[in-house]
Amino acid sequence: MFSHSETTAQARCAASRCAIVETGMDDGLPLNEWVVLGLLAEQPRHGFALARELTAGSDLGRILTVHRPLVYRALDRLVAAGLASASRTEPGDNGPNRTVHAPTRRGTARLGTWLAEPVHHVRDLRLEFLVKVRLLERAGKETGILVAAQRNALAATLDGLVHASDRGDVVELWRSHNAAAAQAFLGALADR
Known about the structure:
Blueprint: H1 4-13, H2 31-42, E1 45-46, H3 47-53, H4 68-80, E2 84-92, E3 95-103, H5 105-116, H6 128-138, H7 144-162, H8 170-191
Antiparallel strand pairs: 1-3, 2-3
Helix pairs in contact: 2-4, 2-5, 2-6, 3-4, 7-8
């Protein structure tokens, strides 16, 4: 059950690209928590710095915007799950000390596994897959293995949608064109 503030935050984010995104559920973490863990793996950070990385105009914020309260909530949940820990405190700018967090060994290992897994639904290419690719690129890691695995994982689904027989139905027409665009996108990624 979401609190009133979380429900309000979700409503505000519905038209943009932010919310509590419940993908990646095989590990029980919502997408915003995976993104925070990925940022911590780049370098230890405090919550305010993490939130700045996830604003609408930022590199990752172009894919998924996460507001500051949800970033702090993600940090708390990652610490509670043993995937991140407080590593030090540093003075805040005109405010209280800031707690810097880093991933634990377990968090780093789980993140590596998650980053290597293709998504299971075409709809998850837009957020989860793009986040994975961008986090891998930012870390200077090869994306080709994930892209190949993703193409393989969705090949039959995309082929079936592209060649759907009932193009008179507006929903099937949308799904067919969306699948064709996804195939083209994955092909262009593979060719980079």
